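Budget justification aside, the reviewers requested a transparent look at the raw inputs and outputs of the sequence design task funded under Objective 1. We therefore reproduce one unedited record. The lines immediately below are the structure tokens for a 464-residue chain.
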């Protein structure tokens, strides 16, 4: 009854004007509710305080833990907190809570561990994932199928077949049977490394254990064949799919494969089949076909396909088309692209103009890039830092430093700065023109669109 009255009083106190509970009453109430197995109410309260400043700090958590030192309840509540932070993409805070549990001798629930490891894997923090996994084992966490699957997924990110197989063997020694996800992830790693026989062995093992292959399994196997241009095997496997329905990934993988072996006819046939089945043609599907059409100089067909997309194409889409037109010395067709997109009710925003200007500047078609820039301004669309930096560099390379200074001056006026991402992109794209690049960055510093210190720091990072 006391615990029930505490909950009633806690809720009543919240109705008092200008009164707010501090962290301590919240924490005490969460403990009371958890002890009464009122988990939904307890988790709801925890959510309300989880993202308050300093809750995950060592000082605050230690004080809260010592005020209610029941190890079972603390483990339950702090495990929920780890899950909340992990799912909220607050990895640093989740790790801080884990560390406080570790230092206080509290073993987290395995679900909290799998949630934290999963977010580390998603963030591609592979080294941190393995370090955290080892720390969890050291404090007595017993991995389950979900933890093992997350760790096998970590192996997928680094294509580490040996570690993935070690984890599978470890699972079996502990009496944990690998599931479809475990096997699919291993097959994916093997196929990405071109180890088709080994992938086939895993596939056979799945079938022996009564685990039906799903479309994810088939997609990995098909990708492996397409990657190595073994389209006959890929096609045979596609026709043999059973118990699963081919999806847009299946078709896109095959389309890309056929484009890479110069079989545009089959790629286009599969695209038609996709459309007939109502499958979504994404930018990857379109780009595979666009690239091949442009390589074969079928620019009219490429343009028709570009306008059929119904959404803004990617930078790569424009790159191939612009390269095709430039190779034919047909920049007039490039200038017509935005107008044609508007005519087909496709949104023409800054991303479209940015892609066109970037590629034209890369191809040193500065006059055409300037015309696209003027078209963009006439539409009332303001250029961003990438647009201005691209034009500034193109003018400098063409021997017009005054125009470069003018673009930097406009950037400075609009407070557009050169970011590390822009620096990295330009350094990679124009790596063969170091002298021009150095002069370019010096101009940028002089005009105040980047600091000398920032350039030096980015150069150091670039060297590393």
């Amino acid at each position: 009854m006391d615990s029930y009255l505490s909950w009633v009083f806690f809720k009543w106190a919240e109705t008092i004007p200008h009164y707010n509970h501090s962290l301590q009453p919240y924490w005490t109430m969460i403990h009371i509710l958890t002890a009464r197995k009122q988990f939904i109410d307890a988790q709801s309260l925890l959510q309300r305080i989880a993202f308050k400043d300093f809750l995950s700090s060592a000082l605050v958590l230690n004080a809260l833990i010592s005020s209610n030192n029941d190890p079972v309840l603390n483990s339950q509540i702090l495990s929920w907190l780890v899950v909340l932070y992990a799912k909220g993409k607050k990895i640093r805070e989740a790790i801080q809570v884990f560390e406080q549990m570790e230092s206080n001798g509290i073993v987290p629930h395995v679900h909290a561990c799998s949630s934290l490891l999963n977010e580390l894997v998603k963030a591609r923090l592979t080294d941190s994932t393995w370090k955290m996994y080892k720390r969890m084992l050291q404090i007595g966490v017993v991995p389950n199928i979900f933890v093992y699957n997350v760790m096998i997924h970590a192996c997928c990110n680094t294509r580490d077949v040996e570690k993935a197989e070690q984890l599978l063997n470890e699972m079996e020694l502990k009496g944990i049977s690998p599931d479809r996800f475990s096997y699919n992830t291993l097959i994916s790693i093997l196929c990405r490394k071109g180890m088709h026989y080994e992938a086939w062995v895993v596939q056979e093992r799945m079938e022996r254990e009564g685990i039906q292959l799903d479309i994810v399994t088939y997609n990995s196997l098909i990708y492996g064949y397409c990657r190595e241009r073994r389209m006959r095997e890929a096609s045979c496997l596609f026709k043999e799919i059973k118990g699963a329905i081919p999806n847009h990934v299946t078709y896109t993988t095959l389309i890309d494969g056929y484009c890479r072996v110069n079989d545009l006819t089959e790629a286009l046939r599969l695209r038609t089949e996709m459309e007939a089945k109502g499958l979504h043609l994404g930018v990857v599907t379109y780009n595979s076909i666009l690239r091949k059409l442009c390589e074969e100089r079928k620019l009219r067909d490429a343009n028709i396909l570009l306008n059929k997309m119904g959404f803004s194409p990617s930078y790569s889409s424009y790159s191939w088309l612009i390269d095709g037109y430039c190779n034919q010395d047909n920049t007039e067709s490039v200038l017509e692209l935005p107008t044609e997109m508007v005519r087909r009710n496709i949104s023409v925003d800054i991303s479209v103009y940015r892609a066109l200007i970037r590629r034209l500047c890369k191809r040193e078609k500065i006059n055409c890039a300037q015309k696209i820039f003027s078209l963009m301004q006439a539409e009332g669309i303001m250029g961003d830092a990438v647009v201005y930096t691209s034009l500034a560099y193109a003018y400098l390379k063409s021997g017009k430093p005054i125009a470069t200074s003018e673009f930097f001056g406009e950037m400075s006026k609009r407070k557009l700065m050169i970011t590390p991402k822009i620096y990295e992109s330009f350094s990679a794209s124009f790596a063969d023109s170091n002298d021009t690049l150095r002069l370019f960055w010096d101009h940028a510093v002089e005009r105040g669109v980047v600091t000398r210190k920032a350039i030096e720091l980015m150069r150091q990072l670039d060297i590393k």
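The two ends are 64 Å apart (CA to CA). The mean pLDDT is 89. Computational costs for records of this kind are itemized in the attached budget.
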